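Q: Sequence in, structure out?
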Amino acid sequence: MSSKYVVAGAGQVGHHLAERLAAQGHEVVVVTRSGAGPRTPGVRRVAADAADAERLTELARGAAALFNCVNPPYWRWPVDWPPMAASFLAAAERTGAVLVILGNLYGYGPVDGPITEESPLAATDTKGRVRARMWADALAAHEAGRIRAVELRASDFFGPGCRHASHLGERFVPRLLAGKPALYLGDPDQPHSWTYVKDVARALEIAAADERAWGRPWHVPTAPAVTAREIAARVCELGGAPRPPRITVPPAWLRRAAGLVSPMLRELEEIRYQFDRPYLLDSSAFQATFGMAPTPLDEALAETVDWWRSRERAAA
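A: Exactly. Output:
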């Protein structure tokens, strides 16, 4: 049976989610400030501000679920997130749509050992506190019976469509495929959990439709952690690129200097702990409850390589 879904945000995840839902015959409304989004049959693109509760409520009327896949620039989180988060809560309460929040791991802060859903939200940095407050407010509204809410948390995204905002995006995969050194802003020999972007979209869809998911956070199914150097070696092998791969790690003084002119790089310094030590995500709870396994790493990397190769061919 087809349903109506509203997807706010058409970035790395929102784009895949909208296409996935539309392919199943659902009515999909994609909301972005610019009106961007996938040009796919069944997807209606709407230009609107997610912080406008009245407009978001209007768009969410009759929707089975409202997906928050928005991601403001890092340096604007303290300003942009509070009104947007309040708008999502208001729209969910007024329409009865399940509020499905795409979260991340920042709220946990530094954690020794694998991160589970039971790990405390103990972040002390600005971005982590913002995300922790968003979920606390949504959970309070859920427990008060005002809304139905769930949050899906993933580690760093990679895959088709992951370009500027991905550590395995344009600074990494296409450079390796071209025989150039990849640029990596961390220790390439530390194990790190990487979440395949299409698995994120699939998990969001599952959580929206299954009431067992509501009222708590879940970790998106994610393959076992590997180092960036291991990722680079597999990318080169799958893509027929020169080996062994080369990885350039900017020194601390250069990162600090670049941060003086780049707000994004300045903000990344605040979460360097994620890349200078093991960063391990435990997604076993979602996998056991909903029977969803992460896409095998080689399969996900092969699709990623194919996507970048297709862009090369299109550019040529």
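The longest helix spans residues 77-95.
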